[in-house]
Amino acid sequence: MKAYVLEAVNELVYKEVETPKCKSGYALVEVKAACICGSDIPRIFETGTYHFPTIPGHEFAGIVREVADEEYKDLVGERVGIFPLIPCKECSPCKDGTYELCRNYNYLGSRCDGGFAEYVLVPIWNLLPLSEEISFEEAAMLEPISVARHAVTRLSDVKGKTACVFGPGTIGMLMAQWLRILGAEQVILVGTKPEQAELAAKLGFDKFCNSKTENVEEFIKKHTNDEGVDIAIEGVGNNGVLTQCLQVIKAGGELLMVGNPHSDAQIEKSVFWQILRKQLKIYGTWNSSYHGGMDSDWTEAVKALEGGELKASMQITHKLPFEELHKGLAIMKERKEFYNKVMIIR
């Protein structure tokens, strides 16, 4: 089969490799669509995976082509989404069912071979069968969709609340959609690109603040009767954005920290005081909940796609042939053109 093999940092080679042999408890999945995650850029070009060689890619979907166990033979031919985290199922979090917090997990696309290949070996437990109503492109986005849902459900009830999302990238736009689905009264987006505002408008969000040309605090005051927002979401991982979040939250409000930090965060004393004096609630979030076929962020993501509540396909800005992964990576790495979600399809 053809696959993209990371042989060393910044050495991603498209070549012929041996197709994985199916084994007990696993399925061989033919990849039909795979997304490039923002985390794939530093993983491929800067830090590397956990060992070499590795086939990257953890956001993907496809069709089950082979199983080793007779009891799972009905899965052959099924369209599936894939939860990429492979829990140990032995540690305390796993025994509590919080598999996303597993202490000894494996991970498709970083710790073992992932979706930038024609075929991937996936544990049966990690397969989520899908109806024909969900396209492979949408199914490949189940991972970020679920991550976004997991994040906003860390908050208290969002119904009737005003929220501001800083960083309207893939996850940011998806969080905005989930906030609306879960009943938020108003969602404000803060970004830096006119194209982000255009995409937000297409998704039904008309309150967009371009932080390069507008004063964020004044914009939010204008649209919240000078009160500030109930919820601020930091989706950038930037110290300055974190400061802005703390400044625009009303007393008793909530801060949700989602963005991966780019460097050490330092908060000025005057800003730190706001956490105390406003009695803010601060939440962190990580990954998403998944329990096989039982209720989880992933099953709720499937329902939202099937019901048309969540418009994932509208966030796909680039669909490239499987053979053009390097082009997609360059688009995201060089940032010379606007993108929200870039994917390769077969």
Count of helix runs:
11
CATH class of the largest domain: Alpha Beta
Assign the CATH topology of the largest domain. Answer: Quinone Oxidoreductase, Chain A, domain 1
Strand content: 25-35%
Supply the helix-strand structural class. Answer: alpha/beta
Instruction: State the CATH superfamily name of the largest domain.
Output: Medium-chain alcohol dehydrogenases, catalytic domain
Assembly form of the protein: single chain
> Can you write the helix and strand succession as a string?
EEEHEEEHEEEHHEHEHEHEHEHEHEHE
How far is the first residue's CA from the last residue's CA? 13 Å
Q: Tell me the Rg in angstroms.
A: 20 Å
Tell me the domain tally: 2
Give the name of the CATH architecture of the largest domain: Alpha-Beta Complex
- Name the average pLDDT: 97
Major sheet description:
7 strands, mixed
The helical percent reads 25-40%
Shape descriptor: globular
Number of strands: 17
Poorly predicted segments:
none
